[in-house]
Amino acid sequence: MSEQDSNWQYADQIVVESEGIKRARAQSLEFGIEAVTPGVGAQLAVFAAASRATNIIEIGTGVGVSGLWLLSASATSVLTTIENEAEHLTAAKRSFAEAGIPASRLRLIGGNAQDVLTRMNENSYDIVLVDADPEQVIETVEHALRLVRPGGTVLVPHALWRGRVADPVRRDDITTAFRTLVEEIAASNAVVSALSPVGDGLLQLTTRG
């Protein structure tokens, strides 16, 4: 294992997850869902805390791992989360309940993200997390930039897509989509951006207010 790989592994292992997140992570494995790693989850919580986020929207609920991390940063933030798979959404609802998250802090929406997002209010969210269909990541981030408030942040987990994005030889559709997204965001003057290598990568972009 390289020194760099050891650092990444350590960044995940050093994170202490709550019992609720541990249960949701175990459930994710049962469903075959690739949830955000502990290191990425901790970064999500830091963003939510630093921005004092009150309105958060998550595109791709899974069974609640990333949502629980986002809500862990504040006792008052409200999460809207969208999931296409009804079974996953039911499991997520259970994960939030078992973690003690009151229903007043949650809005769970079932349906295809591309359809649902067209009905959401623009410039309304402090944080938008994009973790849905990777084949549509560029289109979903375009929606996210419309929904986030000026000075708000869009977060995209799995931005290095299993280590393939950094390898120019990899040209499958999903890898190419993430690579295109990362490069276009890096060149954009409309946002301040960074790419964290923790876990499977976390692309961070904050709109200029």
Keywords:
209 residues; alpha/beta; Rossmann fold; 7-stranded mixed sheet; 42% helix; 21% strand; globular
Structure overview:
The chain has helices at residues 3-13, 19-31, 38-50, 65-71, 86-98, 113-117, 137-147, 173-187; strands spanning 55-59, 78-83, 106-110, 125-130, 148-157, 191-196, 202-207. The protein is of the alpha/beta class. It has one domain: Rossmann fold, CATH 3.40.50.150. A seven-stranded mixed sheet has the order 3-2-1-4-5-7-6, with helices on both faces. β4, α7 and β5 (148-157) form a beta-alpha-beta unit. The radius of gyration is 16 Å and the shape is globular.
List the helices and strands and how they pair.
Layout (H helix, E strand, L loop, with lengths): L2 H11 L5 H13 L6 H13 L4 E5 L5 H7 L6 E6 L2 H13 L7 E5 L2 H5 L7 E6 L6 H11 E10 L15 H15 L3 E6 L5 E6 L2
Parallel strand pairs: 1-2, 1-4, 2-3, 4-5
Antiparallel strand pairs: 5-7, 6-7
Helix pairs in contact: 2-5, 3-4
The order of strands across the largest sheet is 3-2-1-4-5-7-6
CATH superfamily: Vaccinia Virus protein VP39
What is the number of helical segments per DSSP (H or I, 4+ residues)?
A: 8
Estimated radius of gyration: 16 Å
The shape is globular
CATH architecture: 3-Layer(aba) Sandwich
Low-pLDDT segments, ≥5 res: none
Mean pLDDT score, rounded? 95
Order of helices and strands: HHHEHEHEHEHEHEE
State the distance separating the first and last CA atoms. Answer: 42 Å
Number of discrete domains = 1
Could you say what the CATH topology is called? Rossmann fold
Largest sheet: 7 strands, mixed
Report the portion of residues in β strands. Answer: 15-25%
Just give the CATH class: Alpha Beta
